[in-house]
């Protein structure tokens, strides 16, 4: 039985006349890392700020640990850690002082774990925050969040300023949270990060969730790229409805196949004398571009 930690049902948010969230429905289950992706301005941060009780919803429902995100915000925040993309710190305090302040505000204490994280993220905690680069400001917030004992961690583009080594540390820490059975909601534009860590993904566009599921589910709904060398012409495949973008030169053919029709296409290929075959599943980038670019996503992408 999976237990829902975050439940969002038909959430709406208006800023004056502008409807930033039209219909957001998603669930983050206990023990999973949920990736929240979508183009700039799609509504990811607005959804997260509503979950945190910073913004008041205009319609629908949102709960965390079964409690209402607005009326029960204080109780929820005792079990939650949050890192925004733009981290603002007190300019005259040192990084170390701010980490301890964040921990205190969350009812936590500086622990050996905090020191371990400071070493791992290579942060010079003696410097004043006003001297920190964007990446260093993010490190301050990440160290405080990772050394907080919480049940749910919410990250809104937490690594946009981190170098690749630090990005790797971030990923290791998130995977450690997952191993410890914690739940994570991660909004990110770094698709390799999402691909590596997330159990399920929700795609938002124009204030609406347009797809949720595991990456495997989404790949199933998309197309696999095939390159094949055959002794006989594969030209007849071009007529199959599941085959797209068919191109042939001599014995080599390349095309995309609706993933659910792969078996059918392999059956059609077999009698043609297959000498070599390469199949490439869609990357998250492919899915991303497909979902982001199209005004209407094709019928095979609907559940
Ligand atoms: N306080 C606000 N007042 C008015 N409009 C807002 C406000 N906050 C956000 N919006 C608008 O709501 C929409 C969603 O913004 P949001 O910040 O949630 O997008 P996002 O998905 O987080 O984008 P990004 O990937 O760039 O961070 C945008 O059109 C934005 O301009
Ligand atoms: Mg945002």
From TrEMBL:
Keyword terms of this UniProt record: ATP-binding, Nucleotide-binding, Transport
Domain ABC transporter: 6-231
Molecular functions per Gene Ontology: ATP binding; ATP hydrolysis activity
Record-linked InterPro entries: AAA+_ATPase, ABC_transporter-like_ATP-bd, ABC_transporter-like_CS, ABC_Transporter_VariousFunc, DrrA1/2-like_C, P-loop_NTPase
PROSITE patterns assigned: ABC_TRANSPORTER_1, ABC_TRANSPORTER_2
Protein name: ABC superfamily ATP binding cassette transporter, ABC protein
Organism encoding this protein: Loigolactobacillus bifermentans DSM 20003
Lineage, broadest ranks: Bacteria, Bacillati, Bacillota, Bacilli, Lactobacillales
């Amino acid at each position: 039985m999976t237990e829902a930690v975050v439940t969002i049902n038909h959430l709406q948010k208006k800023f004056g006349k502008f409807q930033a969230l039209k219909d957001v429905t998603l669930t983050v289950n206990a023990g999973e890392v949920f990736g929240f992706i979508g183009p700039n301005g799609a509504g990811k941060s607005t959804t997260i700020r509503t979950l945190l009780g910073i913004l008041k919803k205009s319609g629908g429902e949102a709960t965390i640990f079964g409690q209402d995100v607005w009326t029960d915000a204080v109780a929820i925040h005792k079990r939650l850690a949050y890192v925004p993309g733009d981290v603002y710190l007190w300019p005259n305090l040192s990084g170390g002082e701010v980490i301890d302040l964040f921990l205190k505000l969350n009812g936590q204490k500086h622990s050996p774990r905090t020191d371990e994280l400071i070493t791992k993220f290579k942060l010079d905690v003696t410097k004043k925050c006003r001297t920190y680069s964007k990446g260093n400001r993010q490190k301050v917030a990440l160290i405080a969040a990772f050394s907080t004992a919480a049940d749910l961690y919410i990250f809104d583009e937490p690594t946009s300023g981190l170098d690749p080594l630090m990005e790797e540390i971030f990923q290791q820490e998130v995977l450690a949270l997952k191993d410890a059975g914690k739940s994570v909601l991660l909004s990110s534009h770094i698709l390799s990060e999402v691909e590596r860590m997330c159990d399920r993904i929700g795609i938002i566009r124009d204030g609406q969730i347009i797809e949720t599921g595991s990456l495997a589910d989404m790949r199933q709904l998309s197309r696999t790229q095939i390159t094949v060398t055959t002794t006989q012409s594969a030209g007849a495949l071009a007529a199959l409805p599941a085959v797209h973008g068919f191109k042939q030169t001599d014995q080599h053919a390349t095309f995309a196949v609706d993933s659910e029709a792969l078996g059918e296409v392999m059956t059609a290929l077999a009698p043609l004398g297959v000498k070599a075959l390469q199949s490439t599943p869609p990357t998250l980038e492919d899915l991303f571009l497909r979902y982001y670019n199209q005004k209407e996503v094709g019928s095979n992408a609907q559940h």
